[in-house]
Every structure is written in structure tokens, then in C-alpha cells.
Amino acid sequence: MNKPKNLYIMKKIYLFFAFLLSIFGVSSAVATDLPTGIFEVGDAATTLETGKWYFLYNQGTGKYIQESASGALSQVGSPKGKDASTGVGYLIELEEASDGKFYIKTGLGNYYKGPGSSARGTGASATASWAMRINPIDGTTGHFTLQGTTYNMVAPSDGGDIKGGTAKTAGSTGDWVFYNVSTTTSDELTGRDLYNYQMSKLGLIRLHNKRTSTSYLTTTASGVATGAAKASKGLSQIWILEKNGSGYTLRSANTGQYLQSTFGTPANASTTLYFQFSPNNTGTESYCNISSSSDFSGQTCLNLGNNGTTVTKWSYSGDAGSDWAIELAEDITEEDVRNNLNATKGYASELKDGAYYRLVATNYTRYMTEVDGNVQSISLNEDNYAQYWKLVKNGNGWTIQNVLSQKYVQIQSTTSAVYKTGTSKATLYPRRTDDKWEYKWVISNTSNGTSGLHTASSQNYNVVLWSTTADASIWAFQEVALTDEDIENARGALQEYEELMKNLTAYQTHLGNLFEDMACTTLKADIQALSDEALAQNADFSALHKDIQAMVLKVKNGNWQQYTNSKTGYTADYERFFRIADYQVYSHHQDMAGSGNFTMSNPFGRLSNPTGIVANAG
Predict the structure, then answer these.
(1) Suppose 461 and one of 246, 377, 387, 449 were both cysteines; which one would form an S-S bond, judging by CB atoms 3.0 to 4.6 Å apart?
(2) Which string of b and e fits 319-355 if b means at least 16 CB within 10 Å?
(3) Which residue has the higher pLDDT, 336 or 225?
């Protein structure tokens, strides 16, 4: 560690080297060892030293200063209770510059830029203009001003990032306090300090309830959230706690799905939840409340019922079922969770040139499919080769070619318009998101673009052009193994279907010459009288597709498929029976729901009847 030096005992030899540094700039200076453990805020320093860590606090706004990953210097709450490994941005140390000035270096290795008329943040290498004089404020021990070339450093009263100003009196936004840094361990924390620490850690947690301390929030095999006894293994009781705007998300480490505001069945869409230190706590307790509402009002909190299993919504006020204890899941690693989620879902971490994939719209678990030249997300059908895509590297991007039609996804330039397929080898740009748990992607029109493929539920799940920041613009790639024979058979079936549709009008004419009715239930008498050999010579019959010919022969000869129950031996010709039939009229769906005869508690919709068939009268 660097040897501490009193700021006010300056030696001439240091001034000489500081002069050289002010000319050439300071870069990659040896950093003081970073602290470990959990932050505690020590006493305010009355004498400042180089080579020592401090927290910088503004007396005027009551806020601490933290450097973000982007280099902004923001006003935030206390670092107390935060893990030192994730709270590095709070740390500052002083480095000598020249002429009695000092650089402020952060725990992230960057330097405060000197105060300017607007917020300037930090930079990687200090220059002379960033050095500041640190002057005590008269009559206030431990309070200082940070004086730049033109301005003093101030913390805006509106909470904005620090910048230059004129304030320099005690208690003003230009009044700065350097607090000494100390650390403790989690074993020593209780009450609010423990809660703050746990919330700062985020990551993998368990939640057990105060009402029944042996009950843990659990995802069942069917995906429903419930209370259950602590499991000795598995991930069903492990939750991923992550920051999301002003709130948080809770995500099952077992399924990757998010706990919803109803607290029932988790789903793919992320939902913001809110945490608070429970007002029910007494003494050293550190329970929290989890609510779908930011003000925790009414019956909006996650609650465990008296039976220790039922999860519901209720008020936190005086109810132990709404009090949850956070346990850091230190026996589970992030790698365990990543491996589970991606192996279970088959998500690819990288794309392979020439490989075949299914593209999953993860927000809805629907699969990108070519439908009549449009790109749409529909339910999985492994036999539908229009859901398989070949990716080929093309410069910095990729072409996405449908395996069945051999057409490519085209560029769409109009917002909300549907993506199409075509023969042009259009280049799209898939890139991984910052999701650390699942291998998820956005697919943009341009390299690092902000708009691209998005599944629009409001447009029948068509894939449209939209912002790549939306949840419905997130995709996953599932690599699939397809043989050349599989592909050729699928393409042959498509070609056969296209030929069938192209000749549909002609087939209808030929069938009209063979049958008495449009439903094709009764052959004309002269056709029925023909032998199979003679029928094969008939011009109308021979012009039909082979599958339609097979139907004609079934009607003619009555050789319908028979179905036999292996247990009872009962045999029935369901193929003929259900092809054309009369169906009895059933009551209106709302009458059915209300009658109590069908054990239906809700009217549902018009299809809620024994057959699922709806028709107009007449």
C-alpha cells in the first residue's frame, strides 16, 4: 500500500515530480489496495492524506458521490451496508499534482475532471486542468472546498451530477466532507444494515417467510409460485434478484421466468416489483415486504397464507405472512444457474456459420415462422420446417434463410411494418443482450442498430420493425440438427402443396363432375357403378391429385379407416363418422356456465361447449 502523507506537509522533491506529472499527465498510477467486506462509514477526516480511501459526501445535499460505469459522478445514498466489491464507485483517493493541488482518483481507476459549467464526470488519465485545491472551510473542522481553475466543485440541489459553481460556504452545495472508509462482515450485520447489504448484493437469493419460517418461496413443476419446505438441492427455491428502474425483478433460477404482479404463475415478461424494510420489524429483525405497488398501499404485497403453501396478495400491515427474510444463496453459483437455464431451453451462446436454428421470441415463447411470405411468431411445431432457419455469415452480419422456402428475411424500414421474406440475401445483425443468465439476442437492421425484429402481439404476433429495447424484441437461438433428407422431404411436401393450391379450381371442377354434392359424400350413379380399373381411366378422376383420388375411392368402396380399442376390442369407423355428421344444438355458453350442470365457474367464450363448434342458426 502507498505510504500515507499529510496534505499540509509538502516536500520540495514531491513538488518537482508533481510538476513533471502535470506536464505529461498521470496514467496507470499504482492504485491503493481496494478494501474488502461490507462498507461502514467512518468518522469525518479532519486531516487528509494521499494513498488512503475516502467516501466523498456533500453537506449541502446530504448525498454521497458515486462514479458509474459510464464515468458519471452522481449523487446517491449512503454506501453503508454495501458490498465493497460492487461499491467500488464510491471510493476516492488523493494523488498529488503540482502547486499544492491534487487529483481525485476513483476506486474504478479514473480521475475526477476539474469542475466546469456542466457535469464532466471522470477520465482515464489525469491532466493538469483537472487538479484542484482542497481548502478547509473556516470554522468547520472536517469540511472542505474543491477549487478548480475557474469554479468550485458543487453538488446541484436538484440532485444532478456534480459540476462547477460558486458555492463555498459551510452547509452549501460546495461544502465537502471526506469520510474514512471501514468495513465489516455480513455475520456482524443485523436489522436494516443487513437488509441494505442483502439488497446491494442482488444476484441469487432464497426467500423464507416469517409466518412459517420453514416455508420458502418455490416454483412448482407446473411453474406456480408457492410455499414449501426448504429443498436440499435443485433450483426451485433460488431466485435472481435484479435492479429494474426504481424497483426490482424476481426471476426463477429454475425456469428463467419472472414473478408477476399477481404473484401467481411466473411468466416470460419482466415485471417490476418493489422492496421495503418491513415496518413490522422489531429489534434485530431484517424482514422485507415485496409489493406490486411502489407505495405498498392496500393488498398489494406478496403474502404466504396460514397453510404455509398458498401465495396470495395482502397488506403488509401487522401481517407476518407479508414479511420475507432474504437469504443469500451462497451454495449456488451463477454458472450453475446459467448452465441450467440455457441447457434446459437449448439456447445457443454463439452463432455458427451454416447452422440451422429455431428463433424463439422469448417474451411469448413463440417461434419465428415464414407464413405466406410474412415473418410471424407462432406456437412450436417441430414438423413445420417453416420454423427452421439457416444462418450464414455475411461480413459483420448474417443472412437468415428459411429452410423450407429458401427465401431470406428482408430489411424492413417502416416502423410497425411486417418483415417479409424474399430472394435477396439481406444482411441482419444479431447481437447478445446484457442478460447474464440466459443467452438472448436482439436482431437489428444495422450493426449495433436500435431497431429490428419485434414480435407484435397487437398485430397477431407478426414480426415487425420496432425498438430493440422492448422485451418483445428479444430472441433466443436454438440450434437444431437437420439432415439433407429431412430438408428435401419437407421441400417436396411444400412443392406438392403449392401445386395442389395452384390447381385448386381445376380440382373443384373435376370433383363436381364426379360427385352429386359439394361435400363429396355421394358419387354420381354412373361413377359409382364403375370398377376401380374403369374409374382410373376416367378423365376427371385421373386429373386429380393422388390424395384426392384416395378420398374418392374411400367414398366409392366404403373402405374407411377402422379404429379399435386395444382394451375393450370396440371397433368404430371414426374416419367416416366424423367426416360429415349432424350435430345437436347446445345451450348458449353463458347458460351452460350458470346452470351448474357443466361445472363451469366462468362463461369463458362461445367455443365453451362439448364440441367446440359454433354456427349461426338456419
Answers:
(1) 377
(2) bbbbbbbbbbbeebeeeebbebbbeebebbeeeeeeb
(3) 336
